[in-house]
Amino acid sequence: MVRKLKFHEQKLLKKVDFIAWEVDNNLHEVKIMKRYCIQKREDYTKYNKLSREIRELGKQVKELDPKDPFRTETSASILEKLHSMGLIPTKWSLELVEQVTASAFCRRRLPVVMVRSKMADSIKLATQFVEQGHVRVGPEVVKDPAFLVTRNMEDFVTWVDSSAIKKHIMEYNEMRDDFTLA
């Protein structure tokens, strides 16, 4: 049997309607967050907001006159930026801007790029490597799994020189030099 609610509890419950509760698109959100191993919900909401703004911008540019030089200039710059970030596959059509989703941003996260380049077996393991400080992008060590990797930076994702993982890989490939890796 349930205890009787105290006065302040009853008063609080009057303000909340449990029958007509606002349900977010929570199932889809949780599914995407689980697939890409996103720990912070704020990251996913930021990706959603950015993708929505990009799609709206694309629609506004499409509504301009096709012969307008501003439209051609703007659409070219938008497509170039999205392509260099890796959110769209090619920079030929403004139709691709409408297909930018939060998942496109999730696919550019550092752990996902590591899995794609075969540096880790799973996104969860890659996230652990990043958080532990085993990965660097260019000269800088990255400890944030939400780091977005552009197309240009993909080639510079490597292991930190002092990383035990790098030592194991070098030993496995019989390339370890005792002088350089003390």
From TrEMBL:
InterPro entries assigned: Ribosomal_uS4, Ribosomal_uS4_N, S4_RNA-bd, S4_RNA-bd_sf
Localization, UniProt: Nucleus, Nucleolus
Domain annotation Small ribosomal subunit protein uS4 N-terminal: ranges: 4-107
Gene Ontology BP term (one): rRNA processing
Limits of the RNA-binding S4 domain: 108-170
GO cellular component, one term: Mpp10 complex
GO molecular function annotation: rRNA binding; snoRNA binding
Main location: nucleus
Alphabetic keyword roster: Nucleus, Ribonucleoprotein, Ribosome biogenesis, RNA-binding
Family matches, as SMART domains: Ribosomal_S4 (SM01390), S4 (SM00363)
Transmembrane region(s): none
Record bears the keyword Membrane: no
Similarity section: Belongs to the universal ribosomal protein uS4 family.
Protein's name in the database: U3 small nucleolar ribonucleoprotein protein IMP3
